[in-house]
Structure formats: C-alpha cells, structure tokens
Specification:
With 456 residues, this protein is of the alpha/beta class. The chain has helices at residues 54-57, 61-75, 93-101, 115-125, 139-143, 174-182, 205-216, 286-291, 319-325, 345-351, 407-413, 428-436, 441-452; strands spanning 5-9, 15-19, 23-26, 82-87, 105-111, 149-152, 192-198, 219-226, 235-236, 239-246, 260-261, 303-304, 314-316, 357-358, 365-366, 382-384, 402-404. The strands form 5 sheets. The protein has a 7-stranded mixed beta sheet with strand order 5-4-6-7-10-8-11, sandwiched between helices. The longest helix is centred in the first third of the chain and has 15 residues, at 61-75. Residues 1-63, 72-77, 271-284 and 305-336 have low confidence and may be disordered.
C-alpha cells in the first residue's frame, strides 16, 4: 500500500483508504445506504490504478471525512444531526416544518431564485439562500454539502388547472428534473427526500419521470394527497407529497410502500394521537372533516371587540399587525387598519356571485393563492365581519362588511409560527404572493416526523 494512504477501519460496514488529498473506498462488503460500492480514486500515480472521470467521483478529504463520520455515528445510533438541503425554499415553510416536527436536523443550505422570498427567509433565519440558477448545480456541488436529506417544493405552475399544463415541457419544471437526474451521479445520494406540489402533479409526466429515477436509484416511496382539514385546520389546501427513502432504510408502515394515499393514518403510531387520522378519505368524510376543525376565528388577528353577541366587528390586532399597519395608542386597537382590507363595493357588484364568503365561526375556507388581493375569483375566501351569525341568504353582500384576510391571518392558516415576520419593505401584494406560494406546516411537519422515524 502506498505511504500516502491511511487505513481507517469502521465497524461492520466498510473499510476506507483515505489519502492525503483524495481517497478510494474499498468496500469489503456492500454498504447499504452508503456510497453503494462507488469509488473515489486517488490522484497519485503510485497507486498504479486507472483513474475514472473525476468530475463525478472525486471529493476532497475534509468532505469525505465529515460525511463518513456522520454515517458511522448514525449507524451506531449516535445523535448526529441530519444534514438537509432545502430546494425552492421560498419563505421557509420546509424549515419551519422541520422545526415543528422536532427532528434532529440542520438545514445546511437553502436554494431559491426569488429575491423577495430570500429577503423574508434571511429576515427570519439569518441566512440568505443560494440565489443562483439551480440548473447550474452539479453532482460535485451537491456532494460538497455532505447532505443526507433533500426537501423540494418545485414550481407548481406546470401542473395547475389554470395553467397551460405543459408538465415537463414547461421551462419551470426543468430545474426539478435536473436535480433528480443528478442523484445517480452523486457520491452521497440523499437517504431521504420529500417532494411537495399541487394536486395534479401525480398525473403528470414529471411525476412519472420522478418515480422512475427514484426507483432505479434504490428508493422506496410513499405518496400522499393531504389537506390541512385533516389536521384540524379550517383550511382547504390539498397538496401532493412524495416521501422517499433509500434502501435499506424503510418506513415505519411498509404496508403503504409505493402507494398513493389520501389519509394521514400512517403518520400516527397510536390511534389516540389524532382524531383526524380516523378520517380516511377527503371525499368520503368531508362533513366530519370540517366538524373536526377549529373555527376560523381562532386564526384571526382582528378579534371581536364588540359586546354585541350576534355580530363580529373586528378591531383588535396583534403586535405584528400593529407594527405593519399602525396603532391607536389610546386603546390598543386599530381604528383604521381594516380599511385596506375592505372589499370595494364595485368588486362586490361585479363578482359577488363568484366570491367564497366565510364567517368567523365557519370551519372551512378556500385555498389562498398568490393572486389573492389582486383578484377575487378563485383566489381565496373573503371574511364577513358585520353580518349576523344567523346568515340570511337573501341579505345583501354589502351588508356583510366583507374584507380580505390579513397576511398574518393567512400565515396563521398556513400554521407559520408567531415569530414569523415580513421585513418592512415587503409590500402587501408581495406578502400575499409569497404566502400563496408557501406550504402548510400543519401537514408537512407530521410528514417529516414520519419520514425521519426509524422503522420498528
């Protein structure tokens, strides 16, 4: 053996010869979940071995040492944090979901091309995501992060009903496919992945290509279509999710491998954990789902300050809303902040029949899109704040004092924490757009908890 090689022996799984600059892994047996008999060649001529294309096989010694140490510690059951890459990070919904899930994981890098979204992310996490073109990343670039978990929420426009539905032919789908295609070329394929997108993605050709890449790369998948309604949140926002684990890692409930489910039941080990896990199908138990949810008023920032028991006249606001909109210092309530959220009478006259109107005691509201506050039809629910709780269908819409949900209220329905804030320079329309592109933490956190759980 050449002098410039160091022999390191790790327990039970593999032996590595690590050189001063590069290394060659010599698997004495197949290593499940780790490098899968791929080789890293030394650049020293003394080895007398043929050198392959180093663009995909060579990594530096520090990166390799950090990664192998991490893998050995995890194999031995040590509490080594998972290293996570957050693709299409937006305002940080995936990262907040990781925090909510309580898993031992660190986001080592986030990626997003949207400058405004990155301003919000940096404001809340103190780190600015990588803002270059994701398509320019190589397998070697990804290996340098030594990450073992990838979280991805790629653009949904290629798959929405309102869009052109060009699927993989849409330029906005290219970067996602590019990242997936890098997996077989990385020295450190992720152990786990989570992909989020709109309902409709599951019937796209992009979905087919994703599954083909994952399964040929030794991943087992479990797919879900879930809504916050199934987790007690009065918010109808069904989304598609794919969880993937690289063999020999397995899910807690292997019965559902390679299936698409519409129930959160596999996410709970005990039936008592959530009453909502008993509601299997979105379509089959919609009334029971809605009844299990909290009322919308639990998520409002403009609380009831009126003594009239039959009316809701929102005036009180949270500290965060006051900071953005202005405060009446005499009584601690906003006296004019609701004005900008009031729906103009002209819009009511023109689009009243197309509006989805909810009340503070309602237990369901429609999905807020990035076009909320710009358009009325199909972009999200409006709140009736001045209508008697006994709703009369014949009553005039103008009498119901319709208003838009405030951005903080939309954030609440997305289950973003109270600590989440927008920087002052982000205007109202930008806030709605960013929230419309975000995800539901009440759904993603249990999925991540399930994904990271060890099989029994």
């Amino acid at each position: 053996m050449p002098d410039n090689f160091l022999n390191l022996t790790f327990p039970t799984s593999f032996r590595a010869y690590i050189g001063r600059r590069f290394c060659r892994l010599e698997p004495y047996q197949r290593v499940p979940g780790f490098l899968e008999a791929q080789y890293v060649f030394s650049d020293t001529p003394e080895t007398g071995r043929k050198r392959p294309d180093t663009s995909r096989h060579v990594i530096d010694l520090a990166s390799l040492t950090q990664y192998t140490t991490s893998r050995v510690l995890m194999e031995k059951g040590c509490e080594q944090p998972w290293r996570v890459l957050e693709f299409y990070s937006g305002i940080g919904g995936m990262r907040y979901s990781l925090m909510k899930a309580g898993v031992n994981a660190n986001v080592v890098e986030a990626f997003d091309i949207n400058d405004t979204a990155n301003d919000v992310y940096q404001h809340n996490f103190g780190h600015r995501p990588y803002q270059g073109n994701i398509q320019s990343l190589t397998a070697a670039d990804l290996d340098r992060y030594n990450a073992n978990v990838w979280l991805l929420s790629p653009p949904c426009q290629p798959y929405t009903r309102q869009g052109l539905q060009k699927q993989s032919g849409d330029a906005r789908a290219f970067s996602f496919l590019q990242i997936l295609e890098l997996i077989p070329h990385t020295l450190q394929p992720p152990v786990m992945l989570l992909v989020e997108n709109v309902v409709g993605f599951e019937t796209s050709d992009t979905h087919g290509k994703m599954l083909e890449i994952l399964r040929t790369s030794d991943y087992v998948t479990q797919e879900f279509i879930l809504s916050p309604l199934q987790f007690g949140v009065p918010y109808s926002r069904p989304r598609y999710f794919c969880l993937a684990k690289r063999k020999p890692s397995t899910f807690q409930s292997q019965l559902f491998d390679n299936l698409l489910l519409r129930s959160p039941k596999p996410l709970y080990t005990n039936a008592d954990d959530k009453v909502f896990c008993e509601l299997d199908e979105l379509e089959g138990s919609s009334d029971k789902l809605v009844e299990s949810c909290q009322p919308i008023e639990s998520f409002l920032e403009f609380k009831n300050c009126s003594d009239r028991p039959n009316f809701v006249d929102g005036t009180a606001v949270s500290t965060d809303t006051i900071r953005v909109l202005g405060k009446d210092e005499e009584n601690g309530c906003c006296t004019s902040t609701l004005d900008q959220y009031t729906v103009p009478s002209g819009l009511i006259e023109r689009w009243g029949s197309a509006m989805d109107i909810v009340y503070p005691d309602s237990k369901r509201c429609c999905c807020f899109t990035k076009s909320y506050y710009r358009y009325v039809k199909g972009t999200g629910s409006l709140l009736a704040t001045g209508q008697a709780k006994i709703k009369d269908k014949a009553s005039s819409l103008k009498e119901q004092s319709l208003r838009y949900f405030a951005p903080r209220e939309v954030a609440n329905l997305h289950s973003l924490p109270e600590s989440f804030q927008f920087p002052q320079h982000i205007n109202l329309r930008q806030r709605y757009a960013l929230l419309g592109n975000s995800l539901s933490i009440s759904v993603v956190a249990p999925l991540l908890r399930y994904l990271f759980a060890e099989s029994s």
